[in-house]
Amino acid sequence: CCRKDPRRHDDRASLPKNAGWVTNLGGFNFHYDYGGGLVDAADAVALARKYRPRTFSEVSTQEHVSKTLRSAVASGRVGHAYLFCGPRGVGKTTLARVLAMALNCPHRGEDGEPCGSCQSCERIWGGQTALDVIEIDAASNRGVEDARDLRERAMYAPSEADRHKVYIVDEAHMLTREAWNALLKILEEPP
Predict the structure, then answer these.
(1) Beta-sheet strand order (sheet of 22-25)
(2) Per-residue pLDDT tens for 68-121?
């Protein structure tokens, strides 16, 4: 009548060897990997994040966009603002990060591809503190004060002469009307 829940640790004997489940041991969440060993759940990474493209050439299904951006970087004719739109999961944020990496990579190839392995690329890709690339979640920072703060920070020059200041505003559709109006000024008249 009832199936056992594979996520409960007391049902281990009834599961096949390659099944996965989550359990709590000593206050730490663990899950069984398909290899059969215990893995810390904090180390588990979604497949979409693990295999996310890191260069323009690795982007699939959006080749026309990545080719356009790569040629703009290679020729030095990059626009002051780009709007990436589309349904969930098509690679909007990924392409924005790759573009930021390409613009700020000191070892960028002649074709406009970022190296993906220098300190600048690693910081941008990992979402760590990068002085010239700021990623903002507009779902959390959606008010007019957040937009004004962003506008004030945009007035500062990049940290080095050969770098670009990049702002990635993720989930921009969540901004309030007042925040949109505050951001419109900087989009129309870039510093």
Answers:
(1) 22-25, 28-32, 38-40
(2) 999 999 999 999 899 999 998 888 989 999 999 999 999 999 999 999 889 888
- What are the beta bridge partners of residue 39? 31
Q: What angle do CA 62, 186, 100 make, to 5 degrees?
A: 35
pTM for this predicted structure: 0.73
What is the β-pairing status of strands 38-40 and 28-32? Answer: antiparallel
DSSP assignment letter at 112: S
- Beta bridge partners, 30, equal 23, 40
Element (H, E) at 125: helix 119-126
Q: At what angle do helices 119-126 and 92-104 cross, to 10 degrees?
A: 160
Contacts (Cβ under 8 Å, ≥6 apart) of 85? 92
Kindly provide the b/e burial profile for residues 4-21, where b requires at least 16 CB atoms within 10 angstroms of the residue's own CB. eeeeeeeeeeeeeeeeee
How far is the C-alpha of 14 from the C-alpha of 24, rounded, in Å?
18
Tokens 């626009």, residue located: 79
